[in-house]
Amino acid sequence: MVKITEEWDGILADEFSSENYSRLREFLKAEYSTRTVYPSMYAIFNSMKLTAFNDIKVVILGQDPYHEEGQAMGLSFSVPKGVEKPPSLINIFKEIENELSVKLSESGDLTGWAKQGVLLLNTVLTVRAHQANSHKDKGWEEFTDGIIKKISDGRKNVVFLLWGANARSKKPLIDQDKHLVLESAHPSPLSAYNGFFGNGHFIKSNEYLIKHGVLPVDWSNL
User: Fold this and answer.
1) Cβ–Cβ contacts within 10 Å for residue 43, how many?
2) What residues contact residue 66 under an 8 Å CB cut-off, 6+ apart?
3) What's the CA gap between 85 and 88, in Å, rounded?
4) pTM of the predicted structure, to 2 decimals
5) Model pLDDT for residues 11-29, shown as the tens digit of each residue
6) Is there a cis peptide before residue 39, judged by omega within 30 degrees of 0?
7) How many angstroms separate the first and last alpha carbons of the chain?
8) How far is 212 from 222, CA to CA, in rounded Å?
9) Tell me: the pLDDT tens digits for 67-98?
10) Which member of 14, 39, 59, 104 lies 3.0 to 4.6 Å from 72 by CB, making a disulfide possible if both were Cys?
11) Nearest to 95 by CA among 186, 209, 216
12) How far is it, in rounded angstroms, from Cα 162 to Cα 86?
């Protein structure tokens, strides 16, 4: 039985007991025993360990973990302290600095956001070393769709940041009468200039939270 936190374990009990997760678990057991897989099996659910369900203010959806050594830490877009920031994260930092006129730290560790209520969730939670999307269509998507739906149904006034086609495809899971959905291009160098830069999402997120009586996110607090 997976143990995340008592709160999340209860919320996800039906997901963990599903046939989908049973198949996924068998696949992961084989992968972790025969391949190099990221992140560490102990970090797969870090996003939920660090952000309680009832504390969620913002959801940032990524695709799958970074696939090079030392990068993936179970939080979408985040890398551990001391690890060079990947290009997408560099562009996220640029957008925040431009929007908010702040200078962010050199670290790409986003744990500070997670502790403020930003759920940094990938739609696929594991990957083989050096093989992007290698754990796509193995069952993670159904599992994380369940998480998104539970947040949509069980919470109100959450901001969902959907960057790029993969994340934007999750929009139908979200009740837009209860939540704010902000969409744009992905922050990767291939698409950042096609609508990510200048999207204003970090200011808009905080404006929405304040309007609904929620403490805004300090995006410079990493």
Assistant:
1) 18
2) 38, 72, 79, 86, 127
3) 8
4) 0.97
5) 999 999 999 999 999 999 9
6) yes
7) 32
8) 24
9) 999 999 999 999 999 999 999 999 999 999 99
10) 39
11) 186
12) 19
Sequence letter at residue 211: K
183, 61 contact by CB (below 8 A) = no
Say if CB 111 and CB 222 are below 8 A apart: yes
- Residue corresponding to tokens 């992905």: 186
Q: Give dist(CA 195, CA 31) in Å, integer.
A: 37
Alpha helices, H only, 116-198: 140-154, 165-168
Structure tokens at 129: 């070393």
DSSP string, 190-220: TTGGGTTTT--HHHHHHHHHHHTT-PPP-TT
Give the active site residue among 14, 55, 64, 109.
64
Cβ proximity of 182 and 162 under 8 Å:
yes
